[in-house]
Amino acid sequence: MRYRPLGASGNAVSNLTLSLGAHTLARGPGAARELIYCALEAGINSYRLESADPVLAEVVGQALSNLDRKLVGVSLTLGRGDGRRGPQRDFSAEGMTAAIDRALHVSGLGWIDMALLEEPGEDELPQSSLNALKALRATGRVQLLGVSGEGEVMDAYVSTGAFDILATPYHANSDWRIRSRIRAARERDMAIFAYDYFPESLSSEKKALEAAGGKKKRGLFGFGGGTKNDPLAGAGTFAFLHRTPGWTAEEICLAYAMTEPSIASIIIAADNAERLNALAAVPERDMPPGLAAQVEMARVGKAEKAA
To answer: How far is CA 174 from CA 65, 98, 295, 304, in A?
Structure first.
């Protein structure tokens, strides 16, 4: 595992952050704790709770209880409710304060390293809520404030200067808006967390071929294709993601996201040790020569077709 500075906080964060949610608890609390132990052995020191579910918070607290608390970072996603009553969104001062206090009480963590607001809309985050979060930070119950999302409203939240962290989707085919938002956040000394590094639009060779505007060649009457023996088949598209020996498409996308120096950590999800270890090995691997250039060729090709 490798580590990067966490913005201006002076702390170091692992290249990967493990996201923990209902899927983590699906096989029971014991299996969830074992997964966290596996992540710790892999060098991951950053964990995100996807909701304020007290069961999840308790499991995380138990798994980390024997460690020096200053060596690991735990973020709590706010705005999703407590994970037990459906997708309730609550950015009220009372709701977020209660979620943090409850998570701290059942976990015994002492503090939350980052309170991460899940894409609040323009009218969902009143000044009273922001004041409550700042008060929690002043008392030490929360160390950093973050905002997560991809909509245009994120530009407004970045510009306020009220947040320490930006969590944003970032992948090989991210458009200029996302890249511009990342630059703006860095100019304000915000730390960047990335998610959705392997989007559905690149998950299969067919989708990857079409993501940059490319289309498979058709044979006579539109049947079949003439690309099987064509050395240039898929050139200028993202099809190469699924054709690189020794690498899965997801591993390439993860490695590419880590080439962005502004990103402190990339949020991953894993339900078992095998998958976790495979992803945790990526930071130590060097991307095959030319892959970064192929990504840029595909991105440029998409931009030219869109123009």
So the answer is: 38, 36, 11, 15
Q: How confident is the model at residue 87 (pLDDT cuts 50, 70, 90)?
A: low
Q: How many residues does this entry show for the chain? A: 307
For residue 123, give its domain range. 3-199+248-289
Q: The CATH number of the domain where 134 resides is what?
A: 3.20.20.100
Q: Is 156 inside a domain boundary?
A: yes
Q: How far apart are CA 102 and CA 80, in angstroms?
A: 14
pLDDT tens-digit profile of 194-238?
999 999 999 998 998 887 664 444 444 444 444 444 444 555 688
> Is residue 190 a contact partner of residue 164, using CB atoms and an 8 Å limit?
yes
DSSP string computed for 43-97: T--EEEESS--HHHHHHHHHHHTTS-GGG-EEEEEESSTTSSSSS-----HHHHH
Number of domains in the chain: 1
